[in-house]
Design brief:
The protein is mainly alpha-helical. It has five helices and no strands. The chain has helices spanning about 1-20, 25-35, 40-50, 55-65, 75-85.
Length: about 80
């Protein structure tokens, strides 16, 4: 399925980021999907194909895990909606 393809490409990219010896193994996967019929798969494959050429620091920044969202805080929009009730 398409969501599985997204997840697998992201996994390959993260492995390539962590282990340099995986980069030559992951590159052909991205090349294969650069011309995929599904536009989103094609887009992700093209982005991941170019990412290593931007440098290790950039690749690490892009693939860094997002910080956990603080559930104890309310966003400004959420607070305004609660105030209206």
């Amino acid at each position: 399925t398409v969501p599985t393809q997204y997840q697998m490409m992201t996994t390959f990219m993260k492995l390539a980021n962590l282990y340099e010896e995986c980069r030559p193994l992951a590159a052909p996967v991205f090349e294969k999907y650069r011309t995929a019929a599904e536009l989103e798969v094609q887009q992700r494959a093209n982005e991941y194909s170019v990412l290593p050429s931007l440098g290790d620091e950039m690749m690490e920044d892009v693939l860094r895990e997002m910080p956990a969202y603080a559930t104890d805080k309310k966003s400004a929009l959420e607070q305004r909606l609660l105030d209206q009730q």
